[in-house]
């Protein structure tokens, strides 16, 4: 008996997330007939796509043995900037100046905001040798505060159909957010597996000193990685804002936790150097399906959090025992 | 005292130990010898309870035992002192000795007085004249080793396993260690002693056990055994050691260093390197010798651009000035550094052989912006074949290879950058005799092909075997420079030892 289990072990290890997902889906659909419907399928994927965007950036950061706690706040500020510029433009009453923003202009401004904050994270971490935990924790507060200042604490709504199309529209029978996150994932997979940047990211996480002595420009790569994470958080911000037709000042609160959970469930090691984008995508799907299933089963939101916590624990425990067996 | 019978241990299909039988006697120092990868560490880990999934039988004082944890083994009286010391730097000697075995008062609080007294007694016995309240971080490596031994004595260990205890300590510290071992032997303890330094074994060991490829080959008394016999038993055949034939050839200058200084990181007015000037010729091997703290490693690091803010002086390579700005600049100008700490600085242990080799030369395997898997594998296979790296495939994780093969990977990744100057820091530390000789041969070949080479080593025979010219450092000064034919161990050491004023 033990022999059979052992011989299947590599298979189980390789596809453990998918197997867990399959069992999860099977379980939920047995208990609720609303789960296995086409409408719900797209609904779940649409919800997941925000976390997938953020977590893709988070994976790159974690692979370098870093962490980015600021993604939720960066998401909120980027979304609010885009929404504010789109709705109100920039008005300077003192000089009677008004600058209006096109959809493209406002969107780019949001993305630039995210990238800029991410760059700042990377700069602070490399320039002052701050632990990423501390630097991005500071940014979490800073960006949230800036969001409050920019929105004056009120949601910015009424952004127009062409903007909300991004979050709610369909293309070739698939929701636009799913397209967008899919493309981002595809690029990230390519970057991690097939480019120098990707290789350097893994090398830095595996042994920063060995990478430095091999001529890898550590600071440059780290700054790049945090900038990408900020930019992808901004993409998430655009999606959220557009879907709700509203930029909420408290949008994205605790999204960093869901994102880190996706990364960890996906098998990426928090000490860096080991993991993959596709693993994270599976992690994000598992969390998304779990959220959706718990809602459909009418589980109270309080219990939902407890269950999610235990799932994260379980995933890490399984991952640990696997890497021990290697 | 301790007997192992038919011990077999497999790691996911690979047999690390194959029906190993041996015994360790009380009142004896038994040397366990074998090349890297022969299975010494695995065996010690089984004896000390780190691994519990093995086949075979261990008997301790005649009773069959099976340890499930290090604590188990300790409780029985078997202690292991690892090559990497397991002390906590910011705790005192006493706190380290009693870690996990603290004496408490009847109120449940720590009985610091009793613990301090006991550790003072242990330190006295081991002749370590230092207060037990000293933080371990302030001790020298040799002294830390003594603390480890004190830990072992506290639990009344009867078998003490020492894994490469002298790999990081000075000769005077070795003498102290040997005195302690002699005392322990007199107290009828069984000492298991693992070392690559064969000369030590003749001084300290009573018996030897040879492991080769996971099998126990032979054991016997050290009486009447000589150096070469021992090596033959380890390797299974004769090794012809090579010597550099310095034939007075003239080398044109490749590297020229003038007035190189390196400021001390904390005491800014002090210099760790003091006005060093020297040259390395094309095709020349320059050996650099110095005692601990002489500035050997710092010299290589400075040349490689690792201390840009603290260094001054001029360096030119192949007629071009090199700025100490970062390793990136040094690499582009044609330098390569094989660092001292292979596992930390030389390799990314978690990555496979192929990715480690290509790490320095990714631009060469790029095709329209993407890495070519095919080119990468070709590159890796070329070096695996050229340097005879023993690995099941280019996809094997670097961590799983032996020290010698890991070092060959580090060499490969630098050869992939076609360096003009290759700097090696302790290139054969912790590497077995066979792999050592292969690496020497490779260094000679590279020099013959015109590469300039600097070898830093703390082993005199190594320096004498491969250098054309020898530089000696002492406290940051260049104290001697000699051609190898004029050099002797005496003359080198004389220049290396600081003059007490």
TrEMBL record, chain A:
It is a multi-pass membrane protein. It comes from the Bacteria. The chain crosses the membrane at residues 12-31, 52-77, 97-120, 132-150, 170-191, 223-240. Pfam families: BPD_transp_2 (PF02653). It is found in: Cell membrane. GO terms for molecular function: transmembrane transporter activity. The keyword Ribosomal protein does not apply. The keyword Transmembrane helix applies. Keywords: Cell membrane, Membrane, Transmembrane, Transmembrane helix. InterPro entries: ABC_transp_permease. GO terms for cellular component: plasma membrane. This is Monosaccharide ABC transporter membrane protein, CUT2 family.
Automatic annotation (TrEMBL), chain B:
GO terms for cellular component: plasma membrane. Residues 2-238, 255-500 form the ABC transporter domain. It holds the Pfam family ABC_tran. One of its GO terms (molecular function) is ATP hydrolysis activity. SMART domains: AAA. InterPro entries: AAA+_ATPase (IPR003593), ABC_carbohydrate_import_ATPase (IPR050107), ABC_transporter-like_ATP-bd (IPR003439), ABC_transporter-like_CS (IPR017871), P-loop_NTPase (IPR027417). Keywords: ATP-binding, Cell membrane, Membrane, Nucleotide-binding, Repeat, Sugar transport, Translocase, Transport. GO terms for biological process: monosaccharide transmembrane transport. CDD domains: ABC_Carb_Monos_I (cd03216), ABC_Carb_Monos_II (cd03215). It is a peripheral membrane protein. It comes from the Bacteria. It is found in: Cell inner membrane; Cell membrane. This is Monosaccharide ABC transporter ATP-binding protein, CUT2 family. It comes from Spirosoma endophyticum.
